[in-house]
Amino acid sequence: MAFAVSSIMLFFLLVLLPLSATAQPYGNVTLGSSITANNANSTWLSPSGEFAFGFQQIIRGGYLLAIWFNKIPERTIVWSANRDNPVQAGSKVQLFADGRFELSDPRGHRIWATPLSLGGVAYGAMLDTGNFVLANTNSVVLWQSFDEPTDTLLPTQTLNQDGTLVSSFSKTNFSSGRFIFRLQNNGDLVSCTRNFPMDDIIFPYWSTKTVDSGFQVIFNQSGYIFLVAKNGSILNFVSSTSASTSQFYQRAMLEYDGVLRHYVYPKSANSAGGRAMAWSTMHFIPSNICSSIKQSRGGGACGFNSLCSFGTDQMPKCECPIGYSFIDPNDRMSDCKPDFAQQSCNEETHETDLFSFNDMPNTDWPLSDSAYFQQVTEEWCREVCLNDCFCTVALYRDGNCWKKRYPLSNGRVDDNIGGKALIKIRNSNATADSSGSKKSKRSILIITGSVFLGSSMFLNFLLLSFICLYAFCFSQQKSKVIQALQVLPGLNIRRFSFKELQGATNGFWEELGRGAYSTVYKGIIKNDNTETVVAVKKLHKMATEGEEEFKAEVSSISRTNHKNLVQLLGYCDEDQNRLLVYEFMSNGSLANFLFENSRANWYKRLQIAFATARGIRYLHEECKNQIIHCDIKPRNVLLDESFTAKISDFGIAKLLKPDQSRTTTGIRGTKGYIAPEWFRNMPITVKVDVYSFGILLLELICCRRNYERKVEAESEMILADFAYDCYKEGTMHLLVANDDEEALNDKRFDKFVMIAIWCIQEDPELRPTMKRVLQLMEGSVEVPIPPDPASSITSI
């Protein structure tokens, strides 16, 4: 972790600006030098060899004049001159004696060139920053690739007003795509959909909302990416998770799916923690592009008639609905086309009997409405769409019905949508032949049926077949039920029917909270003459993620028994319904207690800190199977009627076998509470929960969020950084408001800050176990002087 955030701007002004203004006079490309495509050994390297300038073959017979990371196997491209016009073998780039720098094809036709107005060019240089420059004899930069980015920013690079990144068209097609990241002339930093193939903007789906104030985007050597005003003050962090450029290669890339991602790649096995070395994502914006784009023109995050869903791998996924397929099977972001003849509008052959609906829950195509109806039934909604030859999809939700027109745009699948989309498709046994009338078709059926029904043998055969079919279906259904019961063996908690929980929640009426895969409702379970208030967590019918979350929660929580863990009372796994029944926590979450109400009592906050620590210690060291929670944060600590803290939400916990001490998995948790090893491909241990607890402990004792923009000084924005600065400088009183006299007068305040600093050490080996954390908090063990969290010394 990089502390002293206030030094970012000072560091930039003193160190980074000179790098962008002056070329280093080594590794020069002399006048007259050239490189020819198809010569694998001909490149211009930076002094360290980390970056290379030359030709990369991207398709058979097609080359880009590019800059790439040269010391990693991926040879990741960070800049190109001719992305929309790949050249053939034999093309050449040359730095002429008069200073012209041009790319020409084998016939000598100019494909790309730097401005002709450049004068006094003495040499070129590929710098270790990834910047290629042309400079004069005084090493003053006259042109640099950093000023003409394609889709990538690198550390020490800046994006000035009107500076633009344009995404590639696809993962393998490097030409300009459908998305733009731009610092506009009015100061607003935005991500937008592009009116492809033109450059004008259709819809800004992410913005810093800094009109009249944004001046420059800076990617500094500490790994921070932020927007500053003209006076140098920080307006917005594009990526606020730091990583050392001495240990990691870094890049921020606007990818073909419209997401700006901050990537890191370990420079050595030590940085990688012994794991496989690869690019990993530190931060990305927007958080969910599928729900961010809602435009009146264009297909949305994916193509027309397509559906976008955002998975746990942080990547949007484009799919076609049932009955549709991609126009270009090789481009998963292309439009989807129906695989059937659409409904005829001929009045005599409306074909309503040839079409039916496929139901897709939590699905919508916003802004594709042709009609809207209120207070109707689902059956009515189906019928009105079926009788409308222009209706492609009907959406039904909470008694409301929308008819959707073709083509469909802004398609998305998201748990927060609710309701269902009714997708109209032609029946598999129906044809598009409408020459005969319905009456003639029915006559044929009647005649054919009469012939067969005239035979008693046929009737007996038909009856026997029906009995066999019923018996088969019954056995299949029974096996499915048995299989569902065997998913979670050995549990001694109550199993509810879906009907019971539907009644207990009054039809899932009162919502208590909502998460990525679930919604929690208040319910009342009646037993004889008693009533028990409960919280019913309804998992959405997604894909494997929802199913895995259900199994993880029930398996882990049902085997725990501690006063500082939320108790699981029961579950339901009937058909496709997955629900969990918990004890009801009447005082809500710690987040509400800390941040949304008046200042919480100091001693009550201490009790919550101890209770939370005991709950985590139990998960790590005392329950039968060790559990890593992976998402310790104030919203996952709940308070009962006496404000006793209990840890909840084990949906992303990693349940370990008794002989295991570590595990590896994709990045999980919540921004601001995630331990650094998640981003470094290091093994994940219980120490990730210790790190999250350290951040939570700081929030508890300081009674403020870990990240706040509205502070008096920039150095106070990130609480973890601010806390270490105050501890080091002996100004601990700055961590609490002036009216928090109880905290200031309690000698434990300074001690708890020191404990929190130990918990948030970057090196997981330096962090104490939760057992040791409790000993430190209780005073049975003296708290040593904590080091800078980014340092490496002997652990405690």
UniProtKB/TrEMBL annotation:
<keyword id="KW-0812">Transmembrane</keyword>
<dbReference type="InterPro" id="IPR036426">
    <property type="entry name" value="Bulb-type_lectin_dom_sf"/>
</dbReference>
<dbReference type="GO" id="GO:0005524">
    <property type="term" value="F:ATP binding"/>
</dbReference>
<keyword id="KW-0067">ATP-binding</keyword>
<dbReference type="GO" id="GO:0004674">
    <property type="term" value="F:protein serine/threonine kinase activity"/>
</dbReference>
<dbReference type="Pfam" id="PF01453">
    <property type="entry name" value="B_lectin"/>
</dbReference>
<feature type="transmembrane region" description="Helical">
    <location>
        <begin position="444"/>
        <end position="472"/>
    </location>
</feature>
<feature type="domain" description="Protein kinase">
    <location>
        <begin position="506"/>
        <end position="781"/>
    </location>
</feature>
<keyword id="KW-0418">Kinase</keyword>
<keyword id="KW-0245">EGF-like domain</keyword>
<keyword id="KW-0675">Receptor</keyword>
<dbReference type="InterPro" id="IPR017441">
    <property type="entry name" value="Protein_kinase_ATP_BS"/>
</dbReference>
<keyword id="KW-1015">Disulfide bond</keyword>
<keyword id="KW-0472">Membrane</keyword>
<dbReference type="InterPro" id="IPR000719">
    <property type="entry name" value="Prot_kinase_dom"/>
</dbReference>
<keyword id="KW-0547">Nucleotide-binding</keyword>
<dbReference type="GO" id="GO:0016020">
    <property type="term" value="C:membrane"/>
</dbReference>
<feature type="signal peptide">
    <location>
        <begin position="1"/>
        <end position="23"/>
    </location>
</feature>
<dbReference type="InterPro" id="IPR024171">
    <property type="entry name" value="SRK-like_kinase"/>
</dbReference>
<dbReference type="Pfam" id="PF00069">
    <property type="entry name" value="Pkinase"/>
</dbReference>
<dbReference type="InterPro" id="IPR008271">
    <property type="entry name" value="Ser/Thr_kinase_AS"/>
</dbReference>
<comment type="similarity">
    <text>Belongs to the protein kinase superfamily. Ser/Thr protein kinase family.</text>
</comment>
<dbReference type="InterPro" id="IPR001480">
    <property type="entry name" value="Bulb-type_lectin_dom"/>
</dbReference>
<dbReference type="GO" id="GO:0030246">
    <property type="term" value="F:carbohydrate binding"/>
</dbReference>
<feature type="domain" description="Bulb-type lectin">
    <location>
        <begin position="26"/>
        <end position="147"/>
    </location>
</feature>
<dbReference type="InterPro" id="IPR011009">
    <property type="entry name" value="Kinase-like_dom_sf"/>
</dbReference>
<keyword id="KW-0808">Transferase</keyword>
<dbReference type="InterPro" id="IPR051343">
    <property type="entry name" value="G-type_lectin_kinases/EP1-like"/>
</dbReference>
<keyword id="KW-1133">Transmembrane helix</keyword>
<keyword id="KW-0723">Serine/threonine-protein kinase</keyword>
<keyword id="KW-0325">Glycoprotein</keyword>
<feature type="binding site">
    <location>
        <position position="538"/>
    </location>
    <ligand>
        <name>ATP</name>
    </ligand>
</feature>
<keyword id="KW-0732">Signal</keyword>
<protein>
    <recommendedName>
        <fullName>Receptor-like serine/threonine-protein kinase</fullName>
        <ecNumber>2.7.11.1</ecNumber>
    </recommendedName>
</protein>
<keyword id="KW-0430">Lectin</keyword>
